[in-house]
Structures are given as C-alpha cells and as structure tokens.
Input
Amino acid sequence: MPNPLPARQDTAEVWLMPVFTAKAGHEADLQQALLALQTVSRKDPGCVEYTVFSDDQRPGTFVLFEGWARLEDLMAHNEESHVKEFVKGSESLLAVPFSVTPLTPLS
Output
C-alpha cells in the first residue's frame, strides 16, 4: 500500500485502514485479489495484523486493517513485489482509487 504517513523517527507501531470499492461486476475478483494479498503479506517481517473485511453495509467494499511493528516494516512491505503487483493489478477492479487512513490507538 502507498505510505500516507509523514517520515517519523520513532519506532512506534503503524496502523492503517485502506478501503477498496469494487467496480460493478468485479466484486469477486477484488475479493480474491485481497485475500491473496492478505495471505502473503501476513508473512512479511514486522506484520502485526493484516486482515481484510467485507463491509456489510456497502456491498463490494472491502476494508483492510493492517498493523506494522515499525514504519520501516511498512515501508519494506510496500516495496515487496506482491504489493506492487496487487496495486497495479487492482486498478482495473476498482470503482475509485483506494483510500488509506492512518490510525492511532487511543491507549
């Protein structure tokens, strides 16, 4: 996933919530691509969480909840071939470009 965060010097965990909306007729293809990405990305160094959810209120919308031990781990993940291939391959499946929301735990 593209890195929406400013450069940080600390070693705090990084949490993101990308949202993907499929083009009509491509819901199953996008779901399959996201599940494949999930399987491989969970093995990337520093992965704390990487789970894809289907939005029950918006059919064809998928939410990814991902956590990384350090910003460097996220940056390395984003350079992996499986991430780059997903980003390029998913463009034709998306109704709109995917968004990425950085998250901060409250405690």
